[in-house]
Amino acid sequence: MAMTPRTKQKVSTVLEVTKTVFHWGFIPTVLYLGFRKGADPGMVPLTLMSLLWY
Asked: What's phi and psi for 44, nearest 5 deg?
């Protein structure tokens, strides 16, 4: 089953957008989830300054 050129273009566009969203969103998502969970007991509290200094 062959795809039409229009379908190929749409699939390519969706893949590019997905790749870009993952590329730019991964680290902010990991940081958000880390701040949301908080520091483990006995560790330095999570703040923006603690991220920059350590």
From this structure: -65, 135
